[in-house]
Design a protein that fits this description.
heterotetramer; A: alpha+beta; six-stranded antiparallel sheet; B: alpha+beta; three-stranded antiparallel sheet; two-stranded antiparallel sheet; 4 helices; 7 strands; about 35% helix; binds adenosine-5'-triphosphate; binds magnesium ion
Chain lengths: ~170, ~160, ~160, ~170
């Protein structure tokens, strides 16, 4: 299972549709403070089913919808599409016959949400289940958000156990 | 389940004892179960001793030593159960040049199993990437992504498909 | 006392509203009392809007924007009541080059009132110091301080008076 | 009141007597991870009367005494001397006739402590009182320890009030 691309449209500061293709190896993301790098991490977590706005630095989930700038109006919807290439044979349970799996999440200002797997509507929980067991998930040790590395040693013994349990 | 946690704990612990001296160019570290009698709930302690120093509480370690120890733990878990990709957001921020080089050596090794996406402000880390994206805000508050070659050339703008 | 806190709060708030746009090259910020009726205990809220962006919760700011806002608050308090010296340990770590330059410009200005001691790994910050000390550990676990000229020349070792 | 010099002897990794002179303007402190830079900040706080070992990253105060390396034995005492120049006229209360004030703190492995102001034995509280009102103190906004800048915005409104109260 390889990460193939991320498409953001109306997600936080990515008001204009943006597609990022991921290659093999090490991909670096650089830019000035506040330009949107960590927002990309938030988008990936959100697409994979993150359920807590706090984990995305917001207080409510609508905080991820582009809310305007001094020269642009806010918009009504946030959309993220995350695509995976399955040709390496490491597919999630139930997708072993597919060459690609794509998850899509939308949120409207009204609070309504839509979820899709390979363009077929589904529930949030289907997306969360898709990733269970793949080693990728919003809680996993495979996403280290900004500032978190400093907390790992300061955390309580029970919290460190949790990280290891994720791998068990 | 109890056995599964213990098995994973022991594999991660073994890997951590191997990874730490590679990141620190020496020294040693290990994990301990707070309560070996209670495998269902026991917390995990970290013991770490940088090269040449004496063993003491991890709270006394420096900011960079703590970060590198935590990186060692995360990488150890990752090596036991690699996920398809790993996202690291500015984990190299507190590290000095020598530690950043060893950190990036290890990231390079782990790309055998997984894709790595690293967000960084550090030039040395940037030089070790296969592909580099620059995120910009020419228009205030609006993010745009471009491909970057080191030396600052913009290869081509991505993603302005409106 | 209630009056003294309010007076200080207002002075700091005024200074913060002036300092923030200098660090951010625009934008605005201010402090708010959570409960204006309860001056003895009211907490303090921070409102911050980087240039060109819309006002939203400070939790959504980036790592560097949060650090620079916090620096602005600390510097505002400092300018209202300067202490003889100020110690800053790696506060520049999350900042990009442009923000580091503005941060160092402001540190330079404040040396009119106080001595500044900055611990850093950043070359730009090092270049803005009047005096640079290098701490080394040639012998593992034993700290030694030397005077440093940029370019890495060791001017003279200090402090090895046993 | 100007910071003139810091002398460390047996304080954390500064087992050998070390004297650092402070000039006007901006003094930079650089070096690799773990070489002792933040230990200098700890020493200054300790000399000014820090009473909590946790604020110095330890669990008990004896943690500040050099405890050995793989090739050196631990020692029995930690000593820090902090000297201030008072010729600018900004002297602490009670020291307006002095040109210099020096505070010294020692801690023995037994737990015994000694305190001195201008070489005269005193109590810890006399040192703490000396700094009250000078704007320098272990809790003040004038010492930002490593990692703390990231916590200021995340802190509760009551904690931010506290920083402002320090200046009131
Ligand atoms: N819903 C939203 N609408 C518009 N802009 C948003 C929204 N949510 C967050 N932002 C903006 O995104 C910016 C933060 O972006 P991000 O955290 O990705 O920065 P960064 O590139 O990681 O910076 P740093 O290097 O400082 O960590 C903030 O300035 C914030 O104003
Ligand atoms: N009582 C002690 N005896 C001997 N060494 C000690 C003692 N207390 C702390 N140390 C050592 O001091 C080191 C930490 O030093 P310090 O925090 O000053 O590093 P630093 O230069 O600030 O590094 P960084 O750039 O990573 O922040 C640790 O490696 C620790 O082992
Ligand atoms: Mg960020
Ligand atoms: Mg440090």
């Amino acid at each position: 299972m390889k990460l193939k691309s991320l498409e953001l449209f109306g997600f936080k500061s990515f008001v204009d549709k943006t597609t990022i293709h991921f290659e093999e190896g090490v991909t670096g993301v650089v830019g000035p403070n506040g330009c949107g790098k960590s927002n990309i991490v938030d988008a990936i977590r959100w697409a994979m089913g993150e359920q807590s706005a706090k984990h995305l630095r917001g207080s409510e989930m609508q905080d991820v919808i582009f809310n305007g700038t001094s020269s642009r109006a806010s918009i009504g919807m946030s959309q993220v599409i995350l695509s995976f290439d399955l040709t390496d044979g490491r597919a999630p349970a139930g997708y072993t016959d597919y060459t690609e799996v794509q998850v899509e999440r939308r949120l409207y200002r009204s609070g309504e949400s839509e979820y899709y797997i390979n363009k077929v509507p589904c529930r949030l929980r289907d997306i969360v289940d898709l990733f269970l067991g793949t080693g990728v998930g919003t809680k996993a040790y495979s996403i280290i958000e900004q500032g978190r590395i400093g907390h790992i040693l300061a955390s309580k013994p029970e919290e460190r156990r949790f990280i290891i349990e994720e791998a068990a | 389940s109890r056995e599964r946690f213990l098995k994973t704990f022991e594999l991660v612990n073994e890997k951590f004892q191997e990874i730490f001296p590679r990141l620190f160019k020496g020294g040693r570290a290990k994990l301990l179960l707070v309560d070996e009698e209670n495998l269902l709930e026991s917390g995990v302690e970290i013991v770490a001793q940088p090269p040449g120093k004496k063993l003491q509480s991890i709270t006394l370690l420096s900011g960079g030593e703590k970060a590198l120890t935590a990186v060692g733990l995360i990488f150890s878990i990752f090596l036991i159960k690699p996920s398809p990709f790993c996202l690291l957001d500015e984990v190299d921020a507190p590290l000095d040049d020598a530690n950043i080089d060893r950190f990036n050596d290890m990231v390079r090794e782990m790309t055998a199993h997984s894709q790595f996406i690293v967000i960084t402000h550090n030039k040395r880390t940037m030089e070790r990437t296969d592909c580099l994206y620059g995120v910009t805000m020419e228009e205030a508050g609006v993010s745009k992504v471009v491909s970057v070659r080191l030396g600052g050339d913009v290869k081509e703008p991505l993603s302005q498909v409106a």
